Amino acid sequence: MKQFLSTGVGVRLLGVCALAVALAGCGTSRDVVTSKSQAVANPTQGLPIRIEQVKDARTFQVQPPQPSTPSLMSDDISDESTRSRAFGRKRGLYGLAMGDLLVDQGTTIATLTETAIAGAFREAGYRVLEMKDPGYAQAAPVSVRIEKLWVWMEMGVPFWKLKSEYQVVLSGSLPALQNGLVVNQQIAHSRSLLTEEKWTTMLDKTLSEMSSKLKKSLGAAKP
Q1: Residue 171 vs residues 21, 110, 118, 209: alpha-carbon distances, Å
Q2: DSSP-derived pairing of the beta strands 48-56 and 127-128
Q3: Tens of pLDDT along 191-200?
Q4: pLDDT (tens digit per residue) in 54-87
Q5: How far apart are CA 11 and CA 222, in angstroms?
Q6: Of the residues 50, 54, 136, 191, which has the fewest C-beta atoms closer than 10 A?
C-alpha cells in the first residue's frame, strides 16, 4: 500500500514537472532564437538622418523579485556579450526562474532596436543613411538609449500571461527629439503553453509596436 501511494505521488510529481517545463518553453538551458523582424527601405526623398548611437542601458539584477526585471540564469550579469543578446527568462510552474532567451550570435537587442527605429523614421518620410552612404556626415544625428526591453511570463487565470515592456529615449537635433523623445509601452498576451516560437513572436511584436508608436510620434507626413 505504501509503495502504491509512493508511486502515485511520484507520477503526479512527474506530471507537475512536465507541465512546468511545457509552460516555460522547455528546459533550463539558454535558448537562442532568430528574430524575423526586417528592415524597411528608404523613401526616395526625405530629410536625411543618421543613427549614430544605440546604447543598451537596461538594468539587470541577480535574482530579482519580479520577472519583469532582466536577469540571467548564471547570474553573470557582468557578461556584456550575453547581456546584450538577452531578451527574456523562462519560468517554471511556480514562477521559478529557468533558462535564458537570447537572440542569434552576431545580433543584439541594440541592433534589433536600431532596425525598428530606422524603419519608423523611414515610414515617417525620413531617409536613414548609413556610414557608406553619400551625405552621411551631414545628416541629422539621432542617438538612442534603450532603458527597457524585456519579455517575461506571469501566472494568470485561466492561462499564463506573456508580457513585454520597452522604453527607448531618442535625442538629436530634430525638433521632435531636442528635449528627448520617450517611446514606451507594455504589451500582454495570454498563452496556455509557451513554446520557443511564441517567445520569438512576442519579441518581434514588441519591436513592431515600438516602431509603430515612434512613427506616430514623428508624424505620418513626410518632412
Answers
A1: 42, 16, 14, 20
A2: parallel
A3: 666 678 889 9
A4: 999 999 999 898 999 999 988 788 999 999 999 9
A5: 63
A6: 136
* Burial 144-160, CB ≥16 within 10 A → b, else e: bbbbbbbbbbeeeeeeb
| Cα→Cα distances 203→7, 108, 140, 175, Å | 41, 12, 29, 30
Model confidence over 136-183: pLDDT tens digits?
Answer: 999 999 999 999 999 998 876 666 788 999 999 999 999 999 999 999
For residues 162 and 76, give the distance between their C-alpha atoms in angstroms, rounded to a whole number.
Answer: 25
- The residue ranges of every structural domain in the chain are 2-218
Domain 2-218 belongs to what topology? Rossmann fold (3.40.50)
219: left (phi over 0), alpha (psi -120 to 50) or beta: left
